[in-house]
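Human:
Take a look at this sequence-structure pair and walk me through the tokens.
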Amino acid sequence: MVESGPIQSCCGTALSTKLLRRNLSVENYLILKEKTVAARKLIRKSWQIFCESLNSKTTSSEMWRKMRRIKGSYSKAEQLSDSEALAFLTKLTPDGVNMPPYDHIRSQPLPTPNLFKMPELMSTLKRKDTSAGQDSIVYSMVSNLPQNANEILLRVWMDRRFNWTKHVNEVAQKCIPYVNILSCVGSNNNGVHPIHLRRLCISKVRSRIDYSSFLFGKASFRLLQKLDTIQNRCLRTCGGFIRSTPVYYIQSELCIPPLCIRRNYLSDKFFLKIASRIDDYCFTRLSDFHNLISFGTAYWRGDRLPLLHNSYSKLKDLEISKYDMWPSHRLPFLVSSVVMLRVTYTHIDDITEPKSKFSSYELKEAADSMLRNRYSDSVLIFTDGSKADRHNGCSFYDSTTGTCAKFNVDNVNIPIMGLELLAISEALQYLRSTDYKKVTIFTDSKSSLLHLVGCTRGKLGRRGLSDY
């Protein structure tokens, strides 16, 4: 019978061949060549052992049985006789055994546990130091690690010159497996739909590229070109475009901006976040850096400025509301614990198709039936928001008492969804002054309801849940 060694070596050769096809490199070719040579030696040796096991006493049935095993087919095992089965069981589980002396018993070492992940480590760190253990390590020693390490806890690779070469190379290396996955599932004939490929590209590839991208925007253009190449390769796979298709056309079709625009957007977003907090440390240091640049420092005279400084220069004159603590942090509960889908409905029970397929009479009857069956014991509050060229407003109506309120909104830039949310907010403020037990608020804006449902996503949710 051929041993399992050649089979394992053949499997290793097949895996090395797949690896070489996915990533053509000299190292993968040398690995494949080494695996092939080792597999040939093992097969030659196993065949020699098999031939030596044959002699004049070998029966034809045994010969055919060995040939079938080499081919991969196995015959059903013959049943053992009662005497053979009893002898086998007696040998496997004897009536008694001799226990070894107690001195020879040694406990086996426990297996090495897996490494801690970053969320697990951060969840165990406390804000204040407590008494240290036997290792004399307090929490501040872990949280205040030196910044000149090759790899810090936030998975940002630093170097002494801050040219971000190591970080960009590591990010590009991590994105390659996901690019290969997109190539496998994104076939033009029987592949995944481009919409799902685009979502997969955004969630798996661009999310890794975006992480801390506004910090290394000052890196060299040749270094950033590696990330652009990875994104362009993913976009061509998602949309099924040929290689001669211009990149700007692909980005326009898939509604994905270039990485340079994306980095500026993330930089502005981060600046608005730190600027909305009172006495924020990052904002204070960024202001000091701007004052240093304005004095004409020789170090930055001929070099490109960081993206955060450009965002500061562009957005520093905006009137930004500042908070000592963000409204989402002031809530007495976790936003993620609120299940908005249980209290929010975005459809009518009897309407399962587009409204264009129903008449106005059928829609009215379905709505009245839903009000009678589900909300007969509730107080009904109706809200609405309207937007004109130079006038915005919102209102709500209490069907029980006939109370109606109208409000003008001076901000002409607020969208229609914002007006609908303001109407719901004013209705909630009105309900605080009442003693109603069960209330249902109706709105004609489905987008505002979906926005409220999305506010509970994540640990702190979207900004505005505490206001609405």
In short: The first helix runs from residue 4 to 22. The radius of gyration is 34 Å. Residues 100-113, 147-153, 463-468 have pLDDT under 50 and may be disordered. The chain is about 50% helix and 5% strand.
